[in-house]
Amino acid sequence: SMVTAMDAAVEGVVGDGFATALLARLDVHTGQLSWVSAGHPAPIVVRDGSVLTDLEQNAVLPLGLGLHQDVEPQLSELSLQPGDLVLLYTDGVVEARSDEDEEFGIDRLSDLCVRASASGLMASEILRRLVQACLEFQSGPLRDDATLLLIEWTHPARPVGAQRLP
């Protein structure tokens, strides 16, 4: 599997270290989101103005420890609904610290995402505002990698070859 290959590749590069990762696949025709989290935070999913709190994630150990060679990871899955926002992020975002040594945190990130989505903004502008909020909160340069990826699933894609009638 891809997780097995990545586990071996990371082990070969970092030696005694490890890396977290989240591998995700979105079927744009059905809205089915599938992912494997190897020691990585779960996605934040905003639906109808609030965060889905019952999102279940199957925990998988980080990559590079040589523990994925004989085990096929179990996928976590969610059926998206039109208008859902899915935010993927690294722990460097939520672990960013202010001058007062306060952590940015998952609750703040979730709240900002919900409030921005309620404004009716495009996903690109929501993402820009999330990045700006994280950078303004952080005192000095970021101490860890901080990456955000925002997906908005609006509706099922038309099948290949489908045509819109005039």
Characterise this structure.
There is one protein chain. By secondary structure, the chain is of the alpha+beta class. Helices cover about 25% and strands about 25% of the residues. The chain has four helices and eight strands, in the order H-E-E-E-E-E-E-E-H-H-H-E. The protein has helices spanning about 1-15, 90-95, 105-120, 125-135, and strands at about 20-25, 30-40, 45, 50, 60, 75-80, 85-90, 150-155. Strands 1, 2, 5 and 6 form a four-stranded mixed β-sheet that branches. A four-stranded antiparallel β-sheet has the order 4-3-7-8. Helix 3 runs antiparallel to helix 4. The protein starts with a helix and ends in a 13-residue tail after the last strand. The model has no long low-confidence stretch (mean pLDDT about 85).
